[in-house]
Design brief:
single chain, mainly alpha
């Protein structure tokens, strides 16, 4: 039993509980790059580990009443079959390519990590106030919202089945953009639906022999308390600094993963990712949308109101009594 694995499990668990992100995006490359686990085995083991940790986190958010079950159902209708299909594709490629499928998995993982890192940085730096302006806990879903949710679920489920990475970021953005969920419901809904998706993918990977239960058990020793602790802070701690740091780490992980896969375009990928991150940072500064991560409560409300006023020409809302 490696104490370092337990420590990594705890850290990733806290991240997942607080933000709904970081499970596969951090743990799979750590297993591959630092501990020398085969990519397909790392993906399958990580998915099994995530299924349990996100079940713990999902139960905690269920108790906190921060889960929108309408969004969960429509996303799961796409993500569950998408994940199973992704695992099936890996199984077919293994039969056709043999050990070369490990290189394919590394390349796919590196590409997803780079994309997720860029999305994370963009959301954190350029759109710190990107959230529902309606503030409703539950919304009456329209037909187009249900259809888009299923499509998003299929795509993210397929990517998860192959790489185990990316669900937290993509689904979180979808929950805000499609369902207009307020911030406190985004993490809870994301974690709850991810648990469903990951159990489906985990069972499929188990059937394919891609799970190391000893390794998974070691990770769980640290991650279960980490997720529980992180979930308690999800509605209290500002996330802008955490998301920015995570975005940088994901881009670095993408570069390291692609380097391990001996992809010759790694320098170009690094240059492109760095340029996008830098442009995003400059644009955020120019538009005055860099959030102060140390401001809480009323200060954050003032930041949001100022951003809305500059973007849409709307100022703070005052009640008649206040007038």
């Amino acid at each position: 039993m490696d104490p370092l694995l337990i420590a990594f499990g705890f850290g990733v668990g806290v991240m997942v509980g607080m933000t709904g992100m970081g499970g596969g995006s951090l743990m799979t490359p750590l297993l591959v790059l630092l501990f020398g686990v085969k990519p397909t085995l790392a993906v399958g083991t990580d998915i099994g580990y995530q299924a349990i940790t996100k079940t713990v986190g999902g139960f905690k958010h269920f108790k906190l009443k921060t889960v929108n079950f309408g969004a969960v159902i429509w996303l799961a209708l796409g993500s569950v079959p998408g994940a199973i299909f992704g695992v099936w594709v890996i199984r077919l490629l293994t039969r056709a390519w043999g050990d070369d499928v490990e290189t394919f998995t590394l390349i796919a993982l590196g590409a997803v990590l780079a994309l997720v890192g860029i999305i994370t940085l963009t959301r954190s730096l350029l759109f710190p106030e990107f959230r529902s302006s309606e503030g409703q806990d539950h919304v009456q879903l329209k037909g187009w919202q249900k259809l888009v949710a299923i499509i998003v679920g299929v795509v993210t489920g397929f990517v998860i089945g192959i790489t185990s990475a990316g669900s937290g970021t993509v689904i979180a953005v979808a929950l805000i953009a499609i369902f207009k969920l307020p911030p406190r419901f985004v993490v809870g809904t994301d974690v709850f639906q991810a648990a469903i998706l990951l159990w489906a993918a985990g069972i499929a990977h188990f059937a394919s022999g891609n799970i190391d239960f000893g390794l998974m058990g070691t990770l769980l020793i640290g991650s279960i308390p980490g997720v529980y602790i992180g979930s308690n802070f999800s509605v209290k701690v500002p996330e802008s600094t955490l998301r920015t740091a995570l975005g940088v780490v994901l881009i670095a992980s993408a570069a390291a993963t692609l380097t391990k896969a001996e992809v010759p375009i790694v320098p170009n990928v690094l240059i492109a990712a760095t340029a996008i991150a830098f442009i995003t940072f400059l644009a955020a500064m120019k538009r005055g949308k860099l959030a102060n991560p140390w401001k809480k409560g009323a200060d954050q409300d003032e930041l949001l109101e100022a951003a809305l006023e500059s973007e849409f020409g709307t100022g703070p809302r005052h009640s008649p009594a206040a007038s």
